[in-house]
């Protein structure tokens, strides 16, 4: 049996995964925390982050696009696709692992 194709791709992926893990062990990081004195400090930090996003044009466009896509596509994946798969196409929900929470509604 020749060695290549899918087997070679999986082997390369596994070697790169473990190599990445080995190199990650060499990273030295010292975690520094600070005590929060009041809720105003938290709000100040959040406002600083919002100002940073607002001042960066590309980051503002990216975050805005993510918000719009999440708002528009979430109802499609949460309501419309399960409806189409169950009612229109006639798939029982126990065959669709992605719709596992909806299976409980069936019983």
In short:
By secondary structure, the protein is mainly alpha-helical.
From the spread of the alpha carbons, the general shape counts as: flat
Strand percentage? under 5%
Q: H/E element string?
A: HHHH
Roughly what percent helix? Answer: over 70%
Uncertain residue segments: none
N-end to C-end Cα span: 48 Å
Q: Quick one: biggest sheet?
A: none
Structural class: mainly alpha
Summary keywords:
mainly alpha, 4 helices, 107 residues
Descriptive report:
The protein has helices at 6-24, 39-55, 57-88, 100-106. It is an all-alpha fold. The chain has a domain at 56-107. The protein starts with 5 loop residues before the first helix and ends with a helix.
Chart the SSEs and their pairings.
Elements: H1 6-24, H2 39-55, H3 57-88, H4 100-106
